[in-house]
Amino acid sequence: MIASQLKLKLKKIQGNVSEDIAIRLHRSISWLNCAEQSKGNGDIQFISLWISFNACYAINVSKEELLSEKENFREFIQKLVNYDVEKRFYQLLWNKFSGTIRVLIENKYVFKPFWDYQRGESINWKLLHEKSIADSLKYLSNQKVTNLLEQVLDRLYTLRNQLIHGGATYKSKVNREQVKQGCNMLQLLIPIIIDILMENAQEDWGEIYYPVINE
Fold first, then answer.
1. 143: left (phi over 0), alpha (psi -120 to 50) or beta
2. Computed from CA positions of residues 60, 63, 68, 74, in that sequence, does the dihedral angle turn out positive or negative?
3. Residue 98 domain-assigned (yes or no)
4. Could you give the maximum distance between any two Cα atoms of the chain, in Å?
5. Which of 28, 85, 103, 202 is the most buried (most CB within 10 A)?
6. What is the C-alpha separation between 29 and 123, in angstroms, rounded?
7. What pTM does this model have?
8. Span 180-204, pLDDT tens digits
9. Backbone phi, then psi, for 107, in 5-degree steps?
10. Burial level of 165, CB count in 10 A (0-12/13-18/19+)?
């Protein structure tokens, strides 16, 4: 599904769901639409797609409950997989594993231990990378959807950090392949995520981060 289709679907249910989930979905769809309008500009497209994803899972929690972003989306993905009765995530992973996903997982430039090694950490990143690739194959064959999605999102999170924290030049030639891979993956994942949220809009997805303040 594309942003315009998801927007129409949201309008149909908007009067029957909480304000929090309606705003969450509206924000996510708006950034998905931005990504669709940014085709041809991989950097902006990837950042827009990540914001769309972020809008889906970000929740307002107390300082005592504060989790890392990776922990937040790990819990969120597990919850999504539980609600994915049609096994859309597994079908996507199965159909795309030999192409987009495998290329992304095998790309060392989006593997965090590779960069940790470059910064001086004494780790065997090559061994860890090979294990990660082998694990992803095992997760696919055993239908461990959450584990495989975590592998994929871990790679995308590293790419996200490179772009958001100024670790890459705008439209740089040296990272085009991973940006392209990241866009390809997120533009397939995010519509499924949004659709599952809409189909389960009565569930508790948490209080939105930065609610709308009416003064």
1. left
2. negative
3. yes
4. 56
5. 28
6. 40
7. 0.91
8. 999 999 999 999 999 999 999 998 8
9. -75, 110
10. exposed
